[in-house]
Prior knowledge:
The chain has helices at residues 2-6, 23-34, 46-58, 73-86, 110-138, 159-179, 208-216, 229-236, and strands spanning 14-18, 38-43, 64-67, 92-95, 141-146, 184-191, 247-250. The chain has 262 residues and is an alpha/beta fold. It has one domain (2-194, 228-256): 3-Layer(aba) Sandwich (Rossmann fold), CATH 3.40.50. It has a 7-stranded parallel β-sheet, with helices on both faces. Strand 4, helix 5 and strand 5 form a beta-alpha-beta unit. Helix 2 packs across helix 8 (229-236) and helix 4 runs parallel beside helix 5 (110-138). The termini are far apart. NADP nicotinamide-adenine-dinucleotide phosphate binds at residues 18-19, 21-25, 42-44, 48, 69-71, 96-99, 119, 146, 148, 191, 193-194, 196-199.
Amino acid sequence: MDDILKSFSLEGKIALVxxxxxxxxxxxxxxxxxxxxxICFNDLNQELxxxxxxxxxxxxxxxxxYVCDVTDEEKIQELVAKxxxxxxxxxxxxxxxxxxxxxxMTEMSAEDFRKVIxxxxxxxxxxxxAVIPGMIKKGHGKIxxxxxxxxxxxxxxxxxxxxxxxxxxMLTKNIASEYGGHxxxxxxxxxxxxxxxxxxxxxxPGNPFNDFIISKTxxxxxxxTEDLMGPAIFLASDASDFVNGHILYVDGGILAYxxxxx
Length: 262
Ligand code: NAP
Ligand code: GCO
């Protein structure tokens, strides 16, 4: 029994989780630390990184934080080289950093559309491209892209986000296809509706969206970042070495459910 549980351990592994000062990224990185990994994360500014470092320290985690915009290929290449030099080759990458702009499509500027695509789709490409060479040399790697319900479904006002997350699903499958032969597994996690700053506007008192989501979720609740920790450990561990190109939806059943009968 012990051996199978050891396959879920991340002891000795180095993980980079993007945009992980708080929210889903912070929860996943914290879970990885509990499973034995060394945690590296980045965020957009020093204030956020410092906030994250303090939050990790309060959990007893000595994380390594860096200021870096995931859309800047040159800076990402420099960051990965710095981590490889100072800490070691990255074993696990979680492309978590993301943004959303909720604007009716015909009112959305092309600039806003491009910004969402840049952070939510181009950046996962940039960061994965930077870490894969080290994973190939090391003989293994785990890439986990944080997808979304909107990798499968659309809804009003999230055209750019859905296009990005749909593309991220296929980028996940393509990395799995192209690099699986190097013992690199690339999978996605598709969170349902999770209570984080990103969804705070949807959960404001009186917002009908709050009740709508609860009615569309068989679990009849919003997800928490803790709900994602176990699935994220699984996809980062040896236990999932033959899982590749899969999007693991952690959604309380939303995608399986037509919705509460009237
Ligand atoms: P969040 O609370 O908005 O946190 C996103 C993090 O990414 C923030 O730390 C943010 O920093 C950082 N970030 C944004 N743009 C960046 C950039 N260019 N470079 C570096 N860091 C950047 O979001 P979340 O709810 O934790 O979501 C995390 C991921 O899960 C996202 O990819 C999101 O699309 C996805 N997701 C969320 C839900 C949900 O219901 N919450 C469900 C499915 C998928 P700033 O604070 O500076 O913006
Ligand atoms: C929205 C929400 C969703 C969630 C998530 C669902 O406006 O519909 O922000 O997009 O963030 O992506 O999986």
